[in-house]
Automatic annotation (TrEMBL):
Residues 174-272 form the HTH araC/xylS-type domain. The keyword Signal does not apply. It comes from the Bacteria. This is HTH araC/xylS-type domain-containing protein. The keyword DNA-binding applies. It comes from Niastella populi. SMART domains: HTH_ARAC. InterPro entries: Homeodomain-like_sf, HTH-like, HTH_AraC. PANTHER family: ARAC-FAMILY TRANSCRIPTIONAL REGULATOR, TRANSCRIPTIONAL REGULATORY PROTEIN. GO terms for molecular function: DNA-binding transcription factor activity; sequence-specific DNA binding. Pfam families: HTH_18. Keywords: DNA-binding, Transcription, Transcription regulation.
Length: 276
């Protein structure tokens, strides 16, 4: 693995054979993109507490910032690829193959068509082989192979609903989502993000709702709730500590906010999740 965060890349095989019936990874917060290529078998992906089933001949891309836990059953085979977007962008062969990453915010998946499956597997195997040696120009070759792999991925990608919005509106929404993930601890109002983006609150709200189907305030609330759930699931912090870390001056206000958005209070949610 390359230690420089901007140059992070790793690839490993998935292998679950007898007598170990299941491989299970501990919950981990991802700092980089992670791709799962399942050639054979099945498993599950727990992403911020939500369960997603994994099936063979499918490929999944998990986005940074999420807590994820993986489980694979006996006989599962495939690859796990982890990379920083900068690793790809710094390549001489970068061809904007990963521009589709900006359209998703948690996980993207694709069913691999039969014609493409051998190609993806060959490129993945070449990356694994190159990753394990110290030949000259190793990093550049890995970047090129990853670039090719993502092009194949994009051809198989489950398409988003068609949207005829102008690119400038889509760019605005993507910038808003990026700012939200960085500033939600301290900025909780539409005006805050409109100011950062140099647009009016009404225009931002109208554009975000047009592209996503939900108003700006909904995304702000859901980002706060998502982080609260992450901390409830994966840390030993108390409700009071989590409330303060999320910028709430009064834990009682946080408790009311959580229940209004989740339907149960914080303690009930945590107890329910611990029983699963």
């Amino acid at each position: 693995m390359f230690n420089d965060n901007s140059q992070h890349f790793s690839i490993h095989t998935i292998g679950c054979q007898e007598p170990q019936p299941v491989i299970s990874s501990p919950p981990e917060k991802l700092n980089h993109f992670e791709i799962l290529l399942l050639q054979k078998g099945k498993g599950s992906l727990q992403l911020d507490g939500q369960e997603h089933l994994l099936a063979e001949n499918n490929i999944y891309c998990i986005f940074p910032g999420h807590f994820r836990k993986l489980r694979f059953t006996t006989g599962t085979e495939g690859f796990i690829i982890s990379f920083a977007l900068e690793f790809l962008r710094l390549s001489d062969s970068y061809s904007n193959s990963a521009t589709w990453l900006g359209q998703y915010h948690n996980v993207a998946s694709a069913l691999i068509c039969k014609e493409m499956q051998p190609e993806l597997e060959i490129v993945a195997q070449k990356m694994k082989s190159e990753y394990g040696n110290l030949f000259d120009k190793r990093m550049e070759l890995l970047k090129g192979l990853l670039n090719i792999f993502l092009i194949y991925f994009s051809r198989n990608l489950n398409k988003l609903p068609h949207n005829d919005a102008p690119n400038r509106e889509k760019d605005l929404v993507n910038k808003f989502i990026g700012l939200l993930k960085t500033h939600f601890h301290t900025r909780k109002f539409v005006n805050d993000y409109a100011s950062l983006l140099a647009v009016t609150p009404n225009y931002l709200n109208r554009t975000v709702k047009k592209i996503t189907g939900f108003p700006t305030s909904h995304h702000i609330q859901q980002q706060i709730i998502l982080e609260a759930k992450r901390q409830a699931l994966y840390t030993s912090e108390s409700m009071k500590q989590i409330a303060y870390s999320l910028g709430f001056d009064n834990p009682a206000h946080f408790s009311k906010f959580f229940k209004n958005n989740c339907g149960v209070n914080f303690t009930e949610y945590k107890n329910q999740q611990q029983k699963l």
